[in-house]
Amino acid sequence: MNKEDFFIKQFISNTKLIGDDGAVIGKWVYSNDAFFENVHFKKEWMSLKQIARKAMLVNISDAIAMNAKPKYALLTVAIPKDYTKSDLKSLAKGFKEVAKEFNLEIIGGDTISNEKLDISVTIISKTKKPILRSGIKKDDLLCYTGTLGTSKRDLEKLFKKEKLSKESKFIRPKLHGEFFYKISKYVNASMDISDGLFFELERMSKQSSVGFEFFYKIDKEIGCSGEEYELLFSFEEKYKEKIEKIAKKYDVPLTIFAKAVKGKYSCECANHHF
Amino acid sequence: MNKEDFFIKQFISNTKLIGDDGAVIGKWVYSNDAFFENVHFKKEWMSLKQIARKAMLVNISDAIAMNAKPKYALLTVAIPKDYTKSDLKSLAKGFKEVAKEFNLEIIGGDTISNEKLDISVTIISKTKKPILRSGIKKDDLLCYTGTLGTSKRDLEKLFKKEKLSKESKFIRPKLHGEFFYKISKYVNASMDISDGLFFELERMSKQSSVGFEFFYKIDKEIGCSGEEYELLFSFEEKYKEKIEKIAKKYDVPLTIFAKAVKGKYSCECANHHF
């Protein structure tokens, strides 16, 4: 077990709320993700505005995966001492732009001086029907949105000091909120793909107590690609056409790749933690 | 204006919720504070359990100052790569101990690997009557709990590599929740003293549009001492005896030191930010 999971395990016996993209309390969903310099990004990879935008988007992605609409955000922002006022404005602009796009309000947080730029975002979102990782039923079809693999490829480019297109999902995650809210009534289980398709499937396998029968072999370049922020979800076969119709309307590519069966599934990607 | 305030100012035009110890949404109060290595503490100053405890307590202090009872917490914990499992257990123990003491549930967060130990805590608390910084009325008496000055003195000791008693407030903030909830019906405005009495008075002066007439001179050793986590609040003179009686019952020292008057108040402590 990696240290991250070991630490999280210390808290699990005290609550049933840990272990999904967000914690559900009544109609509210709470999610929290860190976005730290030299952990999640290097400053030469992205502009300050892009960094602030991505810190927000990866958190909103959790809310969407729970079928919740983001309403409020709290930001911890640790800022290097040498940042200029113009730097601070660019950073603030990124946060504010995303807040406006998603109609959410930044209601507080903490700003401190630090050696590097470290961000932690808490998103408070609202849902009528939370969708959990644990809801996969036997015979459900498994599906993901968008194209997987480009984030891994783009990360490798960055390590080789190549430049990425502004449109790279690694810089600018593409969320599919409107599509997902529309199909939510047909969805049994969902989460977002932050650590890679295979990693997330292992988590869903554990939490839903199912295994998967793949329709074809998925390459590691696809299945081990993290930071995709695409949606991974399951539904009954009878809803397939309805979901595909809505996906077409919202121009969201869908890949149906497996079926839930008895058993369990283990990921074979190299562990990227610690 | 320091950079921290400059950054926060970028967000204020978009919301009325920023600027207090917590943001009030209906009956819920949301507060968020960072507790970062080499910013708020040095690792040789405190054990890992003490660090986790203090990270929780300084956040719960905000909830209490809003007259709210902490219910849930989300933790961002960035952990140095060389921490052992035993280190992680000590850290988790500190968080869990405080959660148990205050009957709150740790419902999620994010754990990552980092160069140093950086913690950010979001507290979700519940209130029937939030008390704000902006509520001071002319002629209100100003009051703080406990003894001020020891945190500044103890911090200076730490910089001289002297050891502190385990009971030092710098290590173990002493909160006065039960007392404060009992007197809350008599209180017009409140906040906790995290940056020092004089700093907080300037904030309250701005937000309540009042000045202060001091009953006696308060030394800088007292007024500029940060990290006290005592309560600063105001009330009408007619409630003085009632409040003093409850304070006696809960064994909380009270110092009534000023009266709210027309005007404004500016702090003269050295700026400790950036």
From TrEMBL, chains A, B:
Presence of keyword Iron-sulfur: no
InterPro entries from the UniProt entry: PurM-like_C_sf, PurM-like_N, PurM-like_N_sf, ThiL-like
Residue numbers binding ATP: 109-110, 133, 194
Binding of Mg(2+) 4, residues: 21, 31, 62
Ranges of residues in domain PurM-like N-terminal: 19-124
Gene3D superfamilies: PurM-like C-terminal domain, PurM-like, N-terminal domain
Transmembrane segments: none
Pathway stated in the Swiss-Prot or TrEMBL entry: Cofactor biosynthesis; thiamine diphosphate biosynthesis; thiamine diphosphate from thiamine phosphate: step 1/1
Residues that coordinate or bind Mg(2+) 1: 33, 110
Sites where the protein binds Mg(2+) 3: 21, 62, 192
Reactions accelerated catalytically: thiamine phosphate + ATP = thiamine diphosphate + ADP
More info: Reaction mechanism of ThiL seems to utilize a direct, inline transfer of the gamma-phosphate of ATP to TMP rather than a phosphorylated enzyme intermediate.
Family listed: Belongs to the thiamine-monophosphate kinase family.
Record's protein name: Thiamine-monophosphate kinase
Source organism (scientific name): Halarcobacter bivalviorum
